[in-house]
Amino acid sequence: MATKELKQFTREEVEKHNKDGDLWIIIDAKVYDISRFKNLHPGGASILLDSEVAGQDATEAFFGLHRMEVLEKPQYQRLQIGTISGEDSVHHGRIAGEISQVPYAEPTWLTEGYYSPYYSKNHRTFQKACREFFDEYIYPDAQAREEDGKRPAQSVLDKMAELNMHAMRMGPGKHLQGLTLMNGLVKPEEFDYFHELIITQELARCGARGYGDGLLGGKVIGLPPVLNFGSDALKKKVLPDVLAGKKFICLAISEAMAGSDVMGLHTTATLSEDGKEWIVNGSKKWITNGTFADYFTTGVRTEDGLTVLLIERGPGVETKQIKTSYSTTAGTAYITFDNVRVPVENTLGEVGGGIFVILSNFNHERWAMCCASARSQRSIVEECLKWTAQRKAFGKPLNSQAVIRSKLAQMIARTESIQTWLENITYQMCNMTYKQQSSKLAGQIAFLKSYSTASGQETARDAVQIFGGRGITKSGMGRFVEHVSF
Ligand code: HEM
């Protein structure tokens, strides 16, 4: 499509187009002809004919009611016919890689004028590259998939694989050996938990939690048992495709009748007569990525107790979508296993030793949740700070009301304390062996997870109060707040 030539107008010229059938407005030094759009406007026609809007500068009114991205949609961009001569636009949407200038919208290590003992020059370069990548490739797909509920686009998974992002999301370790990470920005042996924290936080910053889980979230929790307890042959078969984003794996533990009570599982596995296969029967519920998973890291009850098996999708495995309070992008499933035959070579760890296999990844999994939780709360702080600065009530901006300021202060304090605690724990992880982490950090990580998720609920509740009805509306100004609240 040829780009339309934009003309220059004076404010006096625009003022003349102030009636039904000939209606112009100014938003951020740009002139829009809304004569025909008026009748299609989701907010109604009459408001656009108001004497303070028709032919006038409606910038303040517009940004008090719409997100910038409205004007970036092609169907609305087309309404622009020109600009005001001698004036420049000051509002802009998300610029790939940009650091937010809103106070507290970034952790201190990314805020100008602050220092941190934890992040090296390499972490900073890595963060910059990650932010650019996530803004450019992940954010648009995340927003589109949250809306249509479909699984993440394969093209995005492929792009991530080119950078070996799927492997990096598994944290530091042997699985990174020989890989080129982030186009060579970080050497495999130098990749540490701060690099992983950066990836997890940049993903959370996309503000799409169902999508975040859909983007191989099942792999982050379902692959470690294969990595740490699978035979070499099994790893050779499974790892390359999963780390290339070609195949999905999930962790299938919880059941309709047993959730946190892992030892109370009902799914059974009995050995075939020749002892070569397990025969699995039972069901699993709330399994992230289950609807599209190719592999299921599954907790089963065997004669000797709890055992973990890697089950491949095949005869007898059925998955159904569960509609949860977030989007179906996550692929949350109800799974049934009906006489599924699994080679005994797919046993992960000792027969009867499944609890150790499952528990072995809990610290890392909880820590990753804390990284994501800290970042999504910060994004909500940013949304609230922006909204309260532009929204006027009782003749002044919302952020000048004491009750609102108090809520904002509490939100910021919670977000800052979570990040600070998280960075301390991450530093310990970088310096401890796996064994030391298990004995010294299990408590710290569990407490932080409990604190950060509880704080996330308080922040979501406060944000809904600040946004009012918009905080429960899936589109428009409060859509990110709605997204974290339900
Ligand atoms: C080029 C100009 C405009 C476009 C493209 C536009 C587009 C939209 C869209 C897409 C919505 C649906 C909600 C959303 O996605 O945010 C909306 C809602 C609305 N618009 Fe506009 N709009 C324009 C100008 C204006 C102006 C100048 C005003 C008033 C001064 C206005 C008042 C409203 C109101 C009151 C709503 C309903 C808001 C709500 O539900 O909270 N619009 N508009």
UniProtKB/TrEMBL annotation:
Superkingdom classification of source: Eukaryota
Annotated source species: Hohenbuehelia grisea
Domain called Cytochrome b5 heme-binding: residue spans: 6-85
InterPro entries: Acyl-CoA_dehydrogenase, Acyl-CoA_DH_CS, Acyl-CoA_Oxase/DH_mid-dom, Acyl-CoA_Oxase/DH_mid-dom_sf, AcylCo_DH-like_C, AcylCo_DH/oxidase_C, AcylCoA_DH/ox_N, AcylCoA_DH/ox_N_sf
Family affiliation: Belongs to the cytochrome b5 family.
Pfam families, alphabetized: Acyl-CoA_dh_1 (PF00441), Acyl-CoA_dh_M (PF02770), Acyl-CoA_dh_N (PF02771), Cyt-b5 (PF00173)
Annotated protein name in UniProt: Cytochrome b5 heme-binding domain-containing protein
Keywords, ordered alphabetically: FAD, Flavoprotein, Heme, Iron, Metal-binding, Oxidoreductase
Cofactor (UniProt): FAD
